[in-house]
Amino acid sequence: MDIMVETARKQLYIGEGAERPLPFPGLVTASNYVVPNFMTMDWHRVTPEQMEANIASLGDPGGNLNDEIMLYVHVPYCKSFCHYCNFNRYHYPKQDEERLEKYTDYLIKEIEWYMRQPYVQARKFTSIYVGGGSPSTLPLSAVERLSECLERTIPNYADIEKSFTGEPRTLRRPGMLQLLKDHDWNRVTFGIETLDPVIHRKIGRLDTREDVDSVFSQMRDLNYNADTCVDIMYDLPGQTFDGFVEELAELVDCYQPTEIDGFSTIYLPYRPLHKMILDGRAEQPGSGWDVLAMREHIYDELHARGYHNTIAETYSKHPEKSQYQTAHCARQDIIAAGCAARGNIKDMVSINPDKVDEWQKNIDERGVSTETLQSIGRAGVLDRIMVMFPRYKELSKELLDEFFDLPDFDRVRGVIAEHIAAGVVEEQGDRFVVNKLGVIWHGNLQHDYQRHVINANGDQLMQHLTESADNFDNKNRFEVNSQTLYIKEHDKEYPRLMK
Q1: What pLDDT is attached to residue 475?
Q2: CB neighbours of 149 closer than 8 A, spacing ≥ 6?
Q3: Quick one: 174 exposed, middle or buried, by C-beta within 10 A (0-12, 13-18, 19+)?
Q4: What pairing do the DSSP bridges indicate for beta strands 374-375 and 431-434?
Q5: What's the CA gap between 322 and 332, in Å, rounded?
Q6: Residue 18, Cβ density class (10 Å: 0-12 exposed, 13-18 middle, ≥19 buried)
Q7: How much of the chain, in percent, has pLDDT values that exceed 70?
Q8: How much is the pLDDT for 499?
Q9: 82 backbone φψ class: left, alpha, beta (φ>0; ψ -120 to 50)
Q10: DSSP bridge pairs for 374
């Protein structure tokens, strides 16, 4: 059920006379999931011997912290690069579909390796998520072969949630949606980001409104009843609050998507979008107050239109969370297949090589690509649960109390107490719940649970991604300063992939 139970939808940041509460001295503009792992871990600290022993441990069906498991498959290829994107991706290899077919061959090899492991066989599968990049850039024959592999290897394939990600230009290709329907992909996800044609072009999107129209119309014509899950972004360059209000209304009125993910734009220093603002090729985004008002408007408007705020940035016509969201928020294990994919299995985490050739070489040598599989222990598992609690929006006291014997338990309870006092979390019976104010400020809540492990490089990045409350009226948020200069000078220490 939808856990947001406020008795009134009082506006906090919208309109004259809004009280504008400030539960924190500055606004963190990024969710944790887009912040690179270098903030907290040295991914190469594990020795080859330890890593091999960790891989071998998957031969033991026991030792699990979660009974349920999902499969994440990463396809890094895109037709073009969006200026805001911080995920691992490569340009589509023009006129070289053979390379994409080969990539699919190796995906199948890695998936089949995991599916042979007793630990994986002993878990209950809940979902498959194919993300990227833009998986819809794959040739239809590759999507067919990948789907057939999953049907063959996942024991309950017909009954689980299956998400396929793409972008409108390639999802609308003749035969693509029919193929996805034939293989029972029951969630089709894609980014729209903005319906403003000027902003759309400035952020590097080369798909068109006609492409979006075609995806929805083809699905209707095919009687393809999969959930449609779309992204829309706010805090974009030159975007006003009033303009965003119009875009969100148009999105719902025109398309009625099943699910809407509302994402804040992430301005990483000296990546394309940030550089465009610094040299005047793109306008500054709105002020800190505008960001808060946009976040509140998404929350209020979509609730009024019958959507449920299932996790902090997601609004769905279904009241329950998706299985992908549940796993992503550290409540299930995740198998990671594909270049740069991140996994979470047993009490271990891993990230696959971010170069395709290296990823393929490892699969050739031992069937699986990871070089970084390592245990984070129960303390690390608690960290994962807590940093994702503000997105998941609820935390059962029973789950938290399983970690009562850890040294960090009192610290975690202290942060929860701080958030209750700040008015962003409520205690409701057997659980803690993030309320509307907490959803609007959820990046801050996440940061509070992560700050004890953030390293020096991560601290510099978080300062850049935090808007000081005494600067909320500033219309020129991005300029060269000590944080951006530090990051520019240490560029090689800041990995470019985030997924």
Answers
A1: 83
A2: 107, 108, 111, 112
A3: exposed
A4: unpaired
A5: 12
A6: middle
A7: 93
A8: 39
A9: beta
A10: 349
